[in-house]
Amino acid sequence: MATTDLLLVGTLSAEPGRKTRGTLVADLGTLTVDIPLTLVNGTHPGPRVLITAGVHGGEFTGIDAATRLAALLDPAEVRGQVIVCPVANPPAVYQGRLGVSPLDGVNINRVFPGDSEGGPTGRLAAWLFTNLVDGADAYVDLHSGGIDEVLTDFVGYRLTGDPELDAKTADLAGAIGIEDVIFGTNADGGNSHAAAARQGIPSILVETGQLGERDEDTARRLVGGLYGVLRRLGVLDIEPANDTAVRAWVWVAVVTAEATGLWYPEFGAGDDVTEGQVLGRVLDPADGREHKVLAPATGRIFYGLRGLTVAPGAELAAIAASASRDPGH
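Given the sequence above, the corresponding C-alpha cells read:
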C-alpha cells in the first residue's frame, strides 16, 4: 500500500495533498519523446493506481477520458496516489493513427514489459513499465476501437492462476460499469495488462468507443466508470453507482487475413456467429478472386476490422464465447 509520502516519478513529484502535471523525457535510443503525466497524491494512505491511455494511435475515447479525469481529481479527496498518463505512446498518437508506431512499425501492446536495449517501441514499453507500472497496486489501461475498427464495449483481464490476484482483478473489472467482461485463460504475451498481471498487479483493459470516434458522452461515461474503479479500490469515498450485471466471456478466436487484398466484412461488432459462418471476403484487386473468411468458432464478435485494405496477418475479428462462470470469484 502506498502512504502519504512524496509521490515521485522520474523528476516529477507531488507532495501529499498536491497535484502535479508535467512531462518526462523517455529516451528511445534514436530520439526522445515527452510523456505527459498527472500525479495526484492524496492526504491519506491508500493504494497507488496507474491509469494509462494512448497506447495506440487513433483510440481517442480513452485519451479524452484520462485527460478529463486528471483535471477532475482533487488530492484532498484522494486516499493513496493516482498516476494518470493520457498519452503513453506519443509517436503513435500524434504521428500515426493505427495500432503500430510510425517509428518502427511495432505494436507496443505486443512487446511489454519491453526491452531497454531494443528498438524505439521496445524501449518505450520498458520505460513505461519501469517508471509507471512497477510499484502500482492496481492498473487500468484504456483503449478504444481505432479508426478502422468497430468495437462493442468490454473489459478484459488475464487469469494468472493466483486465486487471490485473480479475484481482485475480477472485482476491479466489475467496478467500471461495463457489462461484458472477457478474460484470457493465462497471462502470457506482450499486452501491458498481461505483463503487469505477471508482476502480481491487478490489471484490466478497458475498451470503449469505435472507429476513432471523438464522442463527449462516451468519454464522460468512461470517467464515471473510472470513478467507480477508484471507489472500489478505496481511493475515493463516493456513493456507489448501481451495480452493473456482468456477463463473463472467454476469448476463443482471433481471425486474421490470409491474403492481401480488399476486405469486405459481413458482420458488426456485437454480432453472434457460428463456427463456419462467412464473416466476409478478401478480394484480390488484381484478378478479382475472392477468399472467403470463415468463423473458426461459435461466439460473439467484440471487435473487427473495417479498413478496406488488408495484408496477411491483419486481425479481422475477435470472437469470445460465453463463460459458465466468472473465474475470478
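Helices lie at 60-72, 90-95, 120-133, 163-173, 192-198, 216-232. Try to locate this feature in the C-alpha cell string yourself.
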